[in-house]
Amino acid sequence: MAKIKHNNFLDTVDDYFLQAQEKGILHLYAEDKSLTGRFITVKGKSLYHFGTTGYLGLEQDQRLKAEAIEGIKKYGTQFPLSKTYISHPLYAELETSLKALFNSPVIITKNSTLGHIGVIPGLVQDQDAVILDHQVHWSVHNAVQLLKPRGISVKMIPHNDSKALEELIKDLKGTHEKIWFFADGIYSMFGDCAPIADLFLLLEKYSQLHLYFDDVHGMSWTGTNGAGFILQSCEELGFSELPDRVMFMATLSKTFGANGSVFICPNEELHRKLKLYGGPLTFSAQLDPASVAAAIASAKIHLSDEIKGLQDELKGKIKLCSRLLKDTALPIVNLNNTPVFYIACGLPITGYEMIERLFKKGFFVNLGLFPAVPVKNTGIRFTISRHNNQKDIRKLVKALAEAFEEAIIVSDSSRRRIAELFKNYNWNASYIKQLEKESKSSSKSNLNSNLVLQCFKSIDDIDKEEWNTHIGHGLFDFSGQQWLEKVLSASFMDESGLNHKTNFFYFRIVDQSNRLVLLTYFSLERLKDDMLAPESVSIAYEKQRMLQPDYMTSRVLSMGSIFSEGKHFYADVNHSAINDAWRLLFKNLEELKREKNGQMILLRDFPDDHIHEHLFKQQGFIKIGMPRSCKMLLADCHSIKEWFSKLSKRNRRHFRVDIEPYLKDCELVISQEATKDLIHQYYVLYQNVQKENIAINLFPYPEQLFFEMNTHPAWEFLELRTRDKEGKLLGVVFCYTSKECYSPALIGIDYNYNASHAVYRQLLYYIIQQGIAKNVSEIDLGLSAAFEKRKLGANIYNTYAYLQSDDNFKLDVLELTQNE
């Protein structure tokens, strides 16, 4: 439905991280003078450490420390030379040990991120295709970006959706040599596993399929000799060695206790090719002697009987934690046998509240936050390691249960709300029992109890004076909104066979004294997910929609309507309960979206840094950039001469050169009552623009809408015709007049004459002329074409929307597509 531009995406991530940083959750510093693994000191407070990824605790093993120190003494702090020329003396031993550990040829890399960058571009050839699991690690996503300039097809499937994967394989196998699927073995946030059995069935079924795993979180704590989750799964499926079309990246850091990563190749030929040339593998500095020495010491432990005892000790603690959690009423995502646990919080505000309380209770855990997880899937991620003893684990589970109860009350959430935000998860029996108990009792709310929300389905149920005083502006004044409601609420079938209908919902929130606190309206309609995406994306999607009309579309509950632009709400910012009013609205919107099978909620047309922004983000809304809004302010402009005099010298020249010479060949005809045949001509011209201008990619409006314009006194048609006898219709603008605003809502153009007669520019000029004649204070020139409108004196405003989606999948698919 919307795009997140790259710089805007970084701003969005920064916004969320900044909020967490301000709350003392992210970008912290450990203050310990020495570390044991069991505790960590933050802001002067010693906390139980449940955030490590060193699950076996080998980073504190004295043997690894001693060998690292000895490595520095013998060989220095680094060996500053590329491995392409020569490796330092310890490398050969490490490679031999790792080859024995994995029973496959290996390539050692500086870290997993550089490893993926070094390996993936060499693996995937120009005639291949790539499929990503939606939640595969960021480092894999990043490496795959290097394939796109080569024209390699990159697709994405929903997380762990084997059926979607097979459908894509079927689509791609006829046009590509190899099909690569990238996934994690153990996923770093939720701790869930790739569906290995299903993937291996597909591997057997489709000879073109190749599997590539990031298994850094499956390393050491599981598998024979700690070789990890992928090799363990292969063994369980009856494979004595890594299958020929399966490969994975493991780690020498995290649980392994040292530094670096290792790529495990299924055969010697591939190993030779990748080691010979692979970007960072060729040109990056090699691992320092201390890291290699520590890795050798760890490999010796892995290849000994000791590793089994370490694994069993950790697995016993994982089992204890799982058993304790099952007895709580906590929403545990994917309760399984991995060291990673995730407590669902839902909205960011609940996660913030819960993690603050855990810190106060003496526990260091991690916050699962956007973009690592979908914004409405915020949660508490904690890990179990050998450093944690049983008493620590029991204390943690008790603290989690207490913090959760406190957090959902303070953030006005509930178990039911969280369960609805985390769809398709199997909750533990204790949670379900408490969930059922909650649903039978009256739900407690932390919101101001004096607030009353009223919801109406028609503008006719709203007081006209109140509406026009607080919201009604331009196209959506009371009369205009009545017209919009009548026209857009009617069902109609478009050319593709999709049935369109807009439902309107009006929300009015008052306090006990009936003082208006919040007034707004929303429309529920089907929108294209690429509505604001780059044109190249929309062109590709439109080809797909010829076969599948609803491809990449969503039912969106959007503030205002797609037909209007502007401030679609009134909020009494001086009211003490205004924030509670917004939260009350959002809860009702969630219920409405679920009832109507919507997928997204969109708050539209906000300026940057407005007063409600922080609250919106806490409630799980992502800030996204919209096309710039263009308005002509006419308060001090009462004639076309005054307008012209206010233009800059450069813009006056633009008018004289690019518009004025064409005026003599054309004339403006203003009509309020057009014939049926003329409206049909209008509609043909509108369709020209609708099909051509996909910068804002919308479904076309039905012809009936233009007939309805013909029946409303506030609508008029500005026709641009040639001055000859034929009086050929070159373009038309559909304009609405309200008390203070002139709104050119839609436009139609005969593109055969646009260049020769400057049709679009002439129409812009006549819109301004007519707006001045109407004696309005503002002309709402709408979105897009800001460059042309600015040259005629329009003010340009950056506008933003706030999107709350059930899942990030479609947004990430758009991001993936628009970077191709």
UniProtKB/TrEMBL annotation:
Domain BioF2-like acetyltransferase: 660-790
Keyword Transport: no
GO molecular-function term, one example from the UniProt record: transaminase activity
Keyword annotations: Aminotransferase, Transferase
Residue ranges of every copy of the Aminotransferase class I/classII large domain listed in the record: 74-399
Domain of life: Bacteria
InterPro entries reported for this sequence: Acyl_CoA_acyltransferase, Aminotransferase_I/II_large, AON_synthase_class-II, BioF2-like_GNAT_dom, PyrdxlP-dep_Trfase, PyrdxlP-dep_Trfase_major, PyrdxlP-dep_Trfase_small
PANTHER family tied to this protein: CLASS II AMINOTRANSFERASE/8-AMINO-7-OXONONANOATE SYNTHASE, LD36009P
Protein name: Aminotransferase class I/II-fold pyridoxal phosphate-dependent enzyme
